[in-house]
Amino acid sequence: MTVWLTAxxxxxxxxSSSKPAYKDYFGRIGGMPLYKKxxxxxxxxxxxxxxxxxxxxVTYPKSGVKxxxxxxxxxxxxxxxxxxxxxxxxxxxxxxxxxxxxxxxxLVVSYYFFFLMVTANPxxxxxxxxxxxxxxxxxxxxxxxxxxxxxxxxxxxKHYEEQMKGSTLKFRTEI
Length: 175
What we know:
Layout: E1 2-4, H1 9-13, H2 22-25, E2 26-29, E3 32-35, H3 36-40, H4 42-46, E4 55-59, E5 76-79, H5 88-92, E6 96-100, H6 104-117, H7 127-135, H8 150-163
Parallel strand pairs: 1-5, 4-5, 4-6
Antiparallel strand pairs: 2-3
């Protein structure tokens, strides 16, 4: 059984031909941007009751969670919520948590095209504007070299280094 701790129904209920601004779509919980319609249901996330044998897969959107098809667990919980916003019961029940990450530049390209494709998402603006919002934590994504200018690449690298300072995680952006 797979459970999503996100709001996929939001996409369908927000469909329209015009795309309002980000502020019309997103609010914040714990400093994290989330769809306002998801925030209205936040009480359901907080009261979610984990089971000791749950496996929790945590990813940033567009990070490739579909590739994890078979894990030996009666229940897999998939979420894009950061660890600090996960229901307390996951920690109380000592659930296994898998954090899946992806090259950040590939992710932002994929996420940009996702925003363009899904009419329920706000207008992402230009790719440059979208990357700026993404780096400011407003992005709620690929062949990244075809989309990043040299200047944007350098700015993103600097920002990424600052955000990952002290982390032992290392990602290659080229093979």
